[in-house]
Amino acid sequence: MIKQELPLQEGNAAPDFCLPTGGGGEVTLSDQLGSPVIVYFYPKDNTPGCTTEALDFSALAHEFSELGARIIGISPDSVKKHDNFIAKHDLSILLAADVEKSVCETYGVWVEKKMYGKTYMGVERSTFLIDQNGKLARIWPKVKVKGHATEVLEATRTITK
User: Fold this and answer.
1) Deepest of 30, 120, 123, 140, by most Cβ within 10 A of its Cβ?
2) Taking the model in full, what pTM does it have?
3) Residues marked as catalytic
């Protein structure tokens, strides 16, 4: 497997993006400035790890909101798939569709992966904590889902003090 380093580093300005969301909406990162933003990239709706991660962030959404933070989940799935995923699991977080994978590429999470001897391109589960000024405060590459949302919440608390 090719080892790929994330092109972004903590302290860098977070690259802006504008992606479609459910209900015909869209989310633009620069519109969120002034508050912390958690942008997490995940491979696919309705898969076990991705569902657990979305449920964990949803369970803590109120606590993130109390800190003024917004959570945006991004995957290459379509808005329709996101809407179904949100409805099926009663998610309370915003999901954005990067079907062209341009934001995934910009953030360095669209990578070569290998499973069962096959090589393919896919999303490397990663999270970016962006401070109120639009800088990358913390980056988690190759995320392991268990306990991750809580760890991100704690990191968010540290930048909002």
Assistant:
1) 123
2) 0.93
3) 50
